[in-house]
Write a structure and sequence with these properties.
Elements (H helix, E strand, L loop, with lengths): L1 H8 L2 H48 L4 H13 L6 E5 L7 H8 L11 H8 L5 E9 L3 E8 L4 E5 L2 E5 L5 E4 L10 E3 L7 H9 L8 E7 L3 E6 L4 E3 L4 H18 L8 E3 L7 E3 L16
Parallel strand pairs: 1-3, 4-7, 7-8, 10-11
Antiparallel strand pairs: 2-3, 4-5, 5-6, 8-9, 9-10, 11-12
Helix pairs in contact: 2-3, 6-7
Amino acid sequence: MSAARVRRTNSPAARKQSRRAPAGRKGARKTAAQSPVNRVAAIAFGLFLTLIAAVVLVALEVPAMARHAAGEAIGRAGFAVKRIDVVGLKNMDSAPVYEIALQQQSMAMPLVDVEDMRQQLLRFGWVKDARVSRRLPDTLSIDIVERKPSALWQDRGRLALIDADGVVIDRVSVTQMPDLPLLTGPGANLHGRELDSLLAAAPTIKPQLVSASWVGDRRWDLALQTGETIALPEGQQAAKVALSKFAELDKATGLLGRGLLRFDLRLPGKMIVRLPRAPGEALAAPATGG
């Protein structure tokens, strides 16, 4: 009996089992040593899976209550708006931008409606474009592209800044008028690019421009610093040719600055000049002290 037990103890299976035992103890010690690292990795992976799940819920249009609950849970896990970065503002007041960002129904990242924020920002005259994005874990990024003022527009007693496309940027008071060309008349703001093209054909006239009046929704009257008005014909090409020829004639003969009132260029190939008084009219007698 004793010899049989010894043989079973020294059998190949027993020897194999005895060799495995130390390896098992070593693996246990290794697992215990790595447990803190694995725990951190598991938590991070769990948060990542939760975020992905929320995105999937939104994409699949799961009922609003479920989406809201999932979004709030993600917010409580650390994915909530704690910082708002706004860039691109130079002229516009930043207060309305922050107000829009902070008036969200929830500040949990998945529930912030970035497209709605963008549409609200585009309602401001200064905002030409806006980009709103989430920067995980807790930052809302708002990038504003402002409109560039190109002229002032006066219509029905109101004065406004406009860009090159005629979009009204902001209202302006008379006491705070910037040094920009002044366009007057209904619809004048929509023809600013045409005016720029006309003035580009007459570079000596452009620096002298005080204001441009859009007349009858069809042509321009240009008021100059020297006191004269140039009445241009209808049609972009006809106006460009007339103004270019006038600039050449002024350069050769010095038409401007002589006290004349108006140069009417509306008739092709002709220029009608308005004098400060009618021909033959006597000069007014100087006033005498009583």
